[in-house]
Amino acid sequence: MQFKVGLGYDVHRLTAGRKLILGGVEIPYPKGLDGHSDADVLLHALCDALLGALGAGDIGELFPNTDERFRNISSLLLLEKVNNLVQEKGFKVENVDLVLLAEEPNIKAYKAEMRFNIAFRLAIDESLVNIKATTQEKLGFVGRKEGMAAYAVVLLQKAKS
Ligand code: MG
To answer: What residues have their beta carbon closer than 5 A to ion ligand 1?
Structure first.
């Protein structure tokens, strides 16, 4: 059996006048994350982890922020494209572990929907997708509510042919 591991990390700035989208779920909050796409920091970290495991570069190379096709695009679509690449290379996602770094809001009530969104796009069982969240104890840019960050780790397994 062949396994590949990947790590992803992303940061986005919080700004007024944007929707807050995390894990493909719109969450009521006075500010949203700024970016070219919907700026879903959780999914961007996940895409980078998947690309890392494949040795296929990063999300910025695949979906440049200079490309108008990707303006305000749902990052669920980007995740779907990245998962297509995983499948083309003959792998399947074994499991996903995510950490969101955000001082607020509490995402507990939205986790189930996030897990569903991600599992659906990766064509795997929801039990293989874990989402954690932590504040930064009011420290740093996350603690000052200037932005959010996310880490992702994935394991890919060579699909049986
Ligand atoms: Mg990003």
So the answer is: 10, 44
